[in-house]
UniProtKB/TrEMBL annotation:
This is Signal recognition particle protein. It is found in: Cell inner membrane; Cytoplasm. SUPFAM superfamilies: P-loop containing nucleoside triphosphate hydrolases, Signal peptide-binding domain. Keywords: Cytoplasm, GTP-binding, Hydrolase, Nucleotide-binding, Ribonucleoprotein, RNA-binding, Signal recognition particle. Belongs to the GTP-binding SRP family. SRP54 subfamily. Its EC number is 3.6.5.4. Involved in targeting and insertion of nascent membrane proteins into the cytoplasmic membrane. Binds to the hydrophobic signal sequence of the ribosome-nascent chain (RNC) as it emerges from the ribosomes. The SRP-RNC complex is then targeted to the cytoplasmic membrane where it interacts with the SRP receptor FtsY. Interaction with FtsY leads to the transfer of the RNC complex to the Sec translocase for insertion into the membrane, the hydrolysis of GTP by both Ffh and FtsY, and the dissociation of the SRP-FtsY complex into the individual components. It catalyses: GTP + H2O = GDP + phosphate + H(+). Pfam families: SRP54 (PF00448), SRP54_N (PF02881), SRP_SPB (PF02978). GTP binds at residues 104-111, 187-191, 245-248. Transmembrane segments: none annotated. Composed of three domains: the N-terminal N domain, which is responsible for interactions with the ribosome, the central G domain, which binds GTP, and the C-terminal M domain, which binds the RNA and the signal sequence of the RNC. The gene is ffh.
Length: 441
């Protein structure tokens, strides 16, 4: 995946303060390959990489994560932004009937999506919806929509044989007005490839129906060709948005980026199956994740960035340089683990913590245990915390009583601290805090 690749690129960067232009450029070569592999169109990938390079140069590398992840995050954020972080639904706030027209290539999913949207609007939004098929090319296309209409319990315009698309549109508009419909959905014909006759037909229909929404329906598996489709439709019909279908398949998400870049219009919905309720608002974050192929790396990085305060890390680093790790340090690590759900900066690095972390992940240890450890340290004197070796049997009894625990519990805590302190000495040998943090990625 891209994050693996970037990891390699950034190995040599570890421990540095900020990204230089050369660092970023070499990373961006990897990003470009990843985008092309995800079927993003070449000119779109090129522009994206240029934009992100500008953003990433000079960016401070967070201490808590590897530079590779930091760049992945920058790339991810840029992808989300480019895919449209706002989620825009349909704009139907007009004097009824609002007209929604769907255009696109043959087989892209226009007819299915028309019915899905009609179901959505008539159900959840309680609109009175009528659908009309203007597809006079494909045999039985109008009947197909009528069948879907019955399934989703939405009215369809009665079929009149031999009528041309513009005339059907005119008739549909009239019927919708007369019968008090809130929304008129126009399903149109497609072609296997973009051709001028199709474009002329779309333009003529749009002139007659003056739609509030003209939605380009694109199969997300279209890949590199998506750009041509988008460019052609976008140049000739005033699109208001895009709908990507077959997002339930193994589309790599590149079409989404190309669509958005070329049309400049929001991707409003994603089709996620053949069933008539398989449509959902478009989620840029998920698609960005798909393009980068990095699962939850980004959310992990974000979590780390939120939870680790720079001063904390700074202070800890200073102590580790001296090979010191007392119970105060342990306490702040425990607090961090609680904040991060078992994902403290040092957790996983250190034998004692690794066990605790695994136990927490498996549900065997919960927050209560971390709180109990915190209570034990809380019951110790300042001296005891700084110098655990002075905690005698007598003191252990006092600490156990004070924290509502047992002497065995106190022993376990002290043993864990001992293991960690030993590990800290090892870390010091490995190059200190920075060396250790770079291994956390
Ligand atoms: P049109 O030619 O653009 O009207 O395309 P259709 O609506 O007739 O759809 C073509 C095929 O794609 C049909 O078999 C649909 O069931 C299928 N389809 C449409 N949208 C989706 C989707 O989001 N996911 C999946 N898996 N199939 C879809
Ligand atoms: Mg159709």
């Amino acid at each position: 995946s891209l994050s693996d690749r970037l990891g390699g690129v950034f190995d040599r960067l570890r421990g540095r303060g900020a990204l230089t232009e050369a660092d970023v450029r070499s990373a961006m070569r990897e990003v470009r390959v990843a985008l092309l592999e995800a079927d993003v169109a070449l000119p779109v990938a090129r522009k994206f990489v240029d934009d992100v390079t500008e953003k990433a140069v000079g960016h401070n590398v967070l201490r808590s994560i590897t530079p590779g992840q930091q760049v992945v995050k920058i790339v991810n954020d840029a992808l989300v932004e480019m895919l449209g972080s706002e989620n825009t639904g349909l704009d139907l706030d007009v004097t009824p009937p609002a007209v929604v027209m769907l255009v696109g290539l043959q087989g892209s999913g226009k007819t299915t999506t028309t019915a899905k949207l009609a179901k959505l609007l008539s159900g959840r939004e309680r609109k009175k919806v009528m659908m009309a098929s203007l597809d006079v090319n494909r045999p039985a296309a109008q009947e197909q929509l009528a069948v879907l209409g019955t399934q989703v319990e939405v009215a369809t315009l009665p079929i009149v044989a031999g009528q041309q698309p513009v005339d059907i549109a005119r008739r549909a508009l009239q019927a919708a007005k007369l019968q008090g419909y809130d929304v008129l959905m126009l399903d149109t014909a497609g072609r296997l490839h973009v051709d001028q006759a199709l474009m002329d037909e779309m333009k003529a229909v749009a002139d007659i129906a003056t739609p509030n929404e003209i939605l380009l329906v694109v199969d997300s598996l279209t890949g590199q060709d998506a750009v041509n489709v988008a460019q052609n439709f976008s140049d000739q019909v005033p699109l208001t948005g895009v709908i990507l279908t077959r997002m339930d398949g193994d589309a790599r998400g590149g079409a989404a980026l190309s669509m958005r870049a070329v049309t400049g219009k929001p991707i409003k919905f994603a089709g996620v199956g053949e069933k008539l309720d398989a449509i959902e608002p478009f989620h840029p974050g998920r698609v960005a994740g798909r393009i980068l192929g990095m699962g939850d790396v980004v959310s992990l990085v974000e979590k780390a960035a939120q939870s680790i305060q720079a001063e904390d890390a700074e202070r800890m680093a200073a102590r580790i340089e001296k090979g010191k790790f007392d119970l105060n340090d342990l306490r702040s690590q425990l607090a961090q683990m609680r904040r991060m759900g078992g994902l403290g900066a040092l957790a996983g690095m250190i034998p004692g913590m690794k066990k605790a972390q695994a136990a927490m992940a498996s549900g065997a240890v919960d927050e209560k245990i971390l709180l109990r450890m915190d209570a034990m340290i809380g019951s110790m004197t300042v001296k005891e915390r700084a110098k655990p070796e002075i905690i005698s049997a007598k003191r252990k009894i006092r600490v156990a009583k004070g924290s509502g625990t047992t002497v065995q519990d106190v022993n376990k805590l002290l043993k864990m601290h001992q293991e960690m302190a030993t590990a800290m000495k090892r870390i010091k040998k490995m190059g200190g805090m920075k060396g250790m943090l770079s291994m956390l990625g």
